[in-house]
Amino acid sequence: MSTKVVFVHGYPDTHRLWDPLREHLRGYDTVALDLPGYGGSMPDGLTGTRWELAEWLTGELRRFRRPVHVVAHDVGGMVLHSVLKNNPELLRSWALTSTCDPDWSWHHNARVWQTTTLGEAARDEYLGYPREWQIIGLGEAGVPEYHAPVTAEHYDATMFNAGLAFYRSSVYIGDWWPEENAELPPGLVLWGNHDRYQAPQHGVKLAARTGARFVALDSDHWWPLEQPKAGAEELRRHWAAVERG
């Protein structure tokens, strides 16, 4: 397959989320992006709102000069909805987890982050913990044990503040829900069947609305870490069907 594959992570992750999955996709031309402020400095003039992330991702995809396959998870998946709605010509195909279903309500953690003062208190409490406590907390939130130290290493104040900006700009995100009968590139909705943050039925609903194939993997929220081999197999099947036309 000659088409480039672009991976977009979520919160609180970096491009490293995709490392286990990409190990099973050797031979493919892949690149994993870091969202602004995630695992590095925040570019001047940005804070991390969903509109900024959408503009940023659109710009990154335009750099490739031809449509690409995009795989996105969590916040990255929601931001990809904006590209699907406003710039679908940039995509050869798409695969994602997490939807902008207007009937969905944010989970508890997100509602805390969306609340002024509470979000800052949660940030300061987390950042004040010793690293080993941070790792334990991430594990309790569902990050697989083997990857929690990697997440903790890069989950700093810059990323936390970027997350606050995203979630506060996303109290309602249903305006990115795909239009009914919209002409979209081929899609795949990949979901953990035990996802604690957004139930699989929202993925089923997105697949039905877009004509995408829905696949449930035996995992919690972080399927790229929990089921990388199975996820890679589904992606290869998806891309092969797209390339065959």
Radius of gyration: 17 Å
CATH topology of the domain at 5-101 and 175-244: Rossmann fold
Low confidence ranges: none
Estimate the helix proportion, in percent: 40-55%
Range of strand content: 5-15%
Distance between the termini: 13 Å
CATH class of the domain at 5-101 and 175-244: Alpha Beta
How many helices in DSSP terms?
11
CATH architect. name of the domain at 5-101 and 175-244: 3-Layer(aba) Sandwich
Order of helices and strands: EHEHEHEHHHHHEHEHH
Adjacency order of strands in the biggest sheet: 2-1-3-4-5-6
Rough outline? globular
Q: Count the E strands.
A: 6
Oligomeric state of this protein: single chain
- Largest beta sheet, briefly? 6 strands, parallel
Mean of residue pLDDT?
97
CATH superfamily of the domain at 5-101 and 175-244: Alpha/Beta hydrolase fold, catalytic domain
Classification by helices and strands: alpha/beta
Organism: Streptomyces hainanensis
GO molecular function, one term: hydrolase activity
Keywords: Hydrolase
InterPro entries: AB_hydrolase_1, AB_hydrolase_fold
